[in-house]
Design brief:
The protein is mainly alpha-helical. It contains 5 helices and 8 strands, in the order E-E-H-E-E-E-E-E-H-E-H-H-H. The protein folds into 3 domains: 56 residues, 30s Ribosomal Protein S18, CATH 4.10.640; 34 residues; 125 residues, Helix Hairpins. Helix 3 packs antiparallel against helix 4 and helix 3 runs parallel beside helix 5. The radius of gyration is 33 Å and the shape is elongated. Pfam families: zf-B_box (PF00643). InterPro entries: TRIM45/56/19-like, Znf_B-box.
């Protein structure tokens, strides 16, 4: 069976096969297509044409010329009623529509759970960042208020403390922002798979839908959900000091 229009013509085997005959299930080049349509037996045949055309996945078993009605769990493939008896008798299998519905529900649940978790993580990162920034501002305010009551000798110390806090703030915020970007990237991937999942609802071919859903499930399982790290903590304890201690 022809798998892709990017292959060569299955008749002359030398030119690109850009034309797929739906009745013969074969790829033709432009010249062989014309010759094919001139024959009496193929006068009414229809073609799918174009450099990226993908032949429709057939819903019947080519070996037995029977429709696919089951899906073999052990072999991971659709099978007909004759295949069950001849090649899959002792295997676990289910109706293909039932298998499709099960994985459709499973993929939907996984996608929605991923999106919820990623959105929750992003919200946690944003909340942590805001709280940490507020803590830094409060500490700077306390340090500044205390500095006003101290003599010139401690001003340099105050300056060093603030600089140290700013450096820590920059490092922590960069770390949190990096994690935030990772979660957002994961969310975009999950949403993309959700869009692909919604697109599968328009597929009438259950075999093709099942294959697409398995691919989506594989992609969404690969989206990482790292836990939100501990929220950075900072505080300043106000204290009275004597000149000798300074």
């Amino acid at each position: 069976m022809a798998q892709s229009a990017s292959k060569t013509c299955e008749i002359c085997v030398c030119s690109p096969g850009h034309n797929y005959c739906e009745q013969c299930d074969q790829l033709f080049c432009d010249g062989c297509k014309v010759s094919h349509l001139r024959s009496k037996i193929a006068t009414n045949h229809t073609f799918l044409s174009g450099p990226s055309v993908i032949p429709e996945v057939k819903q019947y078993c080519k070996e037995h010329n029977e429709s696919f009605i089951y899906y073999c769990m052990e072999c991971d493939m659709p099978i007909c009623k004759i295949c069950v008896i001849k090649n899959h008798k002792s295997h676990n299998f289910a109706e293909i529509k039932e298998s499709t519905e099960e994985i459709k529900a499973e993929v939907k649940e996984v996608i929605e759970m991923k999106i919820r978790n990623l959105q929750s993580n992003i919200a946690g990162i944003e909340q942590s960042s805001n709280k940490y920034k507020a803590d830094i501002c409060n500490v700077i305010k306390v340090i500044s208020e205390e500095a006003e009551q101290l003599i010139l000798m401690i001003k340099e110390k105050i300056k060093c403390l603030i600089m140290s806090l700013r450096e820590k703030e920059t490092q922590k915020i960069q770390t949190l922002q990096s994690l935030d970007n990772e979660f957002k990237t994961g969310l975009e991937k999950a949403k993309k798979q959700h869009k692909l999942y919604e697109d599968t609802q328009q597929i009438t071919d259950t075999t093709k839908m099942l294959k697409q859903l398995k691919q989506i499930k594989s992609q969404i399982d690969a989206v990482e959900e790292n836990p939100v790290p501990a929220i950075p903590f900072v505080k300043y304890a106000n204290k009275m000091v004597s000149r000798s201690e300074i």
